[in-house]
Amino acid sequence: MPTRGSARRPTPPAGEPFVVTEHPSSGAELRLERNGVPCCWDLPEGPPAARGRALPAVPTMGGDGGGLPTWDAGRYAVEQWTDDRVVVVLAGRRLRGRHVLFRSPDGGWSVRALDAPAEGAPLVPMLATAGELPPSAQDHDWGYEFKWDGVRALAVVEAGGLALWARSGTDITVRYPELSLPTALTGHDAVVDGEVVALDARGRPDFGALQGRMHRTGPEVRRMAATTPVTYLVFDLLAWEGESLLALPYAQRRERLEALGVAGERWVPTPWFRGGGAAVLAASRDNGLEGIVAKRLDSPYRPGLRGPDWRKVKNVRTQAVVVGGWRPGQGRRAGGVGSLLVGVHDDAGRLVYAGHVGTGFTAAALAELQPLFTPAHRPPFADALPREVTRDARWVAPELVGEVAFAAWTADGRMRHPSWRGLRDDLAPEDVVEEW
């Protein structure tokens, strides 16, 4: 079965095939083609088509699948492949997003969906792997965009209406009424990809300002839209007049997007550059931006895939985290929150401790946090915590997702020098994993 590979998240191969066939006696079989060799698992309870519990997976030698009905097929990218754990991102008709196959201590195998799309969402956005700039000799094969500090959103234009979908599969249309349909899209059907941002006086994304808009759905939304409007930065065209453009190269999709002229009604097409990655990265630093995204000019759009064709090169490291507890403050924070105890999910779906965050909070952020906590009697983290953490900790249900900036990961899986950036509700808690 799985052969030994490099340890953690190697550069994945470019989209090898997978297939799921139906078996009358064993439910289904998952076959991953790896370097021309099939790696197979029987799935007696079927494949995990949505987020949820781990299901049994039994390694087999596998047949050729001949004569058996195909339940799903597509391409996949590898995030990790070891003897005991395989993490892949599937892009099929039914199975999409990150999935993990892992060996339990008793020797049995299981499969679990980590971030499969939510019911009703039109697509799962294509994601980028963290990395370095492409080598200078390959620079001409890549396009470069600035990385925007906001909330990823797909816009679906259909029958004269507009719907905005967050990466989590949540319909967020009601939260941003100022993002009305631009004139260029009126009377057309389209799906575009972009980022909802709040811009400061100098035109730079302000994540703190956006945070005040993320969670609002009540009557105050209209007032906030007038006083703190957001902007939709558009960077990809995925469908036009019922025609899917996912298979087109990135460069062609960008050219077709530009030809539409969708600017207006707080929609702004983002700039992109053919080659010149080092200069674009330098410009992002000079302008105080988060970094850049490098995209292969010939890359198709693979929903849900976090593959090698898109790379995010960050000036500042950020990480989504799940809040699992807090420690009381001292001095000016006495009687309230002093720091947050946060975690991320490992490949087996367990919430593991990633450190405590005590800086970066405004008074308003601290006042907002405490009423949102649901007290719990025990820590939600699966691993053992240091005594200095548990001594005065207050545990909460792992329901809130936030974002932190930090310097690096330590050898024991803790974030070094984390600083709080704010809550975010575009990610479900179970979707929060260590970012690379």
UniProtKB/TrEMBL annotation:
Family of the protein in this entry: Belongs to the ATP-dependent DNA ligase family.
Protein name (record): DNA ligase (ATP)
Highest taxon of the lineage: Bacteria
GO biological process entries: DNA recombination; DNA repair
Gene Ontology molecular function terms on file: ATP binding; DNA ligase (ATP) activity
Entry keywords, A to Z: Ligase
E.C. numbers: 6.5.1.1
Source organism of this protein record: Geodermatophilus obscurus (strain ATCC 25078 / DSM 43160 / JCM 3152 / CCUG 61914 / KCC A-0152 / KCTC 9177 / NBRC 13315 / NRRL B-3577 / G-20)
Region of interest (Disordered), residue spans: 1-20
Residue ranges annotated for the ATP-dependent DNA ligase family profile domain, each copy included: 223-346
Catalytic reactions on record: ATP + (deoxyribonucleotide)n-3'-hydroxyl + 5'-phospho-(deoxyribonucleotide)m = (deoxyribonucleotide)n+m + AMP + diphosphate
Coiled-coil region(s): none
SUPFAM superfamilies listed in its UniProt record: DNA ligase/mRNA capping enzyme, catalytic domain (SSF56091), Nucleic acid-binding proteins (SSF50249)
